[in-house]
Amino acid sequence: MKRRNFLHTTVATGTAALSGLLPNLATAMSSNQRKRACIILWMSGGPSQTDTFDMKPQHENGGEFSEIATNVPGVRFSEHLPGLAKHADKLAIVRTLTSKEGDHERGAYLLQTGEKMGGPIKPPALRSRLGHQLSPDRTTLPPLVSIGSDSFVAARPIGSGFLGPRYQPMDVAVAGSASPGDDIRSGSPASLSVNALSRHSTINESRWQRRFQLWESFENGFLAQRQNNGLRSHRGTYENARDLMSSGQADVFDLSGEPETLRHRYGVGTFGQGCLLARRLVEAGVACVEVTLSRSTIGGSSWDSHTQNFPAVENLSRELDAGFATLLEDLSSRGLLESTTVVCMGEFGRTPRINANAGRDHFPRAFAGVLAGGDVAMGQTYGKTSDDGMQIVDNPVSIPQWLATICAATGVSPNDTVMNESGRPVPIVDADPIEDLYV
What we know:
The protein is built from 11 helices and 18 strands. The protein has helices at residues 3-19, 22-32, 82-85, 104-113, 126-134, 205-224, 229-247, 260-266, 270-284, 309-333, 399-409, and strands at residues 37-42, 67-69, 76-78, 91-98, 144-147, 170-176, 191-193, 288-292, 340-345, 349-350, 362-363, 367-373, 380-382, 384-385, 392-394, 397-398, 417-419, 425-427. It starts with a helix and ends in a 12-residue tail after the last strand.
């Protein structure tokens, strides 16, 4: 039991016992318990820490942006993150993530699995591990969903590994793009869709039922002669998709009923609308949602800013700020923030030194990640880099430690084990969490 939960329970139980209200307390506590969840905001391409959460305004490496005060004394962000600056008391900014993987694919693999690429066994991504731990029972909704993922980083996507197809994310694609404009809140919001939940217009209900019955007869005959957990898991995935299509729960993916003012506050691009969908999904019981921000709605700028870094980071920061800040407000107003951990990270950072093309190159030595909600010890920065941003001078955080901390903040013990494909128990993350970052 977490320290905070222990204290809350102990004090409440003692008070209730003295007043003779213990039965009512037990009922209230049971009804208020919410399923835990995690939302991962994946900054594909590697965002510049020097231009967002670890600025160096007094040094030539600081670049073009100014910094602004936040609602936490002494903590300052980029001028292009004004929404998040108002919610710094809900954030823990880790400024000293560090690795040796400066390649996009290898860096993303490490950040998402905690392991180096090339091992004999394919490990599941963090999102799959969290989905597995937080959704032990089969439900109609998938345990995890990926929104707006792209192929920028990896030719070989990082999947569910030995956890099987049940913990492969359901992909939500872009059905219609937002209208471009100078303001990421203007234009028409992007449309998101799940292709797997739609029948072709020529397939009516009767024809669909006959097709499923034919499929089921083949499956029954095939599985009757084969005892294989992987095959049965694959069948379960199909059955879940069918149930989701017919249960009405697929309506959670439809954003059209959300107020237009709220949709525009999130931002009209894929990322902003993805953050809104993430809130809807965790509210409905989905354990883990990943939302990707790789390219800006404005001009297609990328976090991989080898050239013209500052216009790219400005555009992307505005989208990140609108989506992330509104997500925090929305979760908080609905009583979901305490049960939902929000993570913002990319595969590495960018060089503090500005190159000859006004860009910043790959820099895994020292970069930033952000935590919020759940059991996060919020309202702080952790770790310190040198005045020029080139070195870590206090509290380096390895990537396995970072992933273990995400687990701990989401209520998952990183020391819990699951069976890999060789039948051996392996920990969720083979590292200890940073105790100062969670309660």
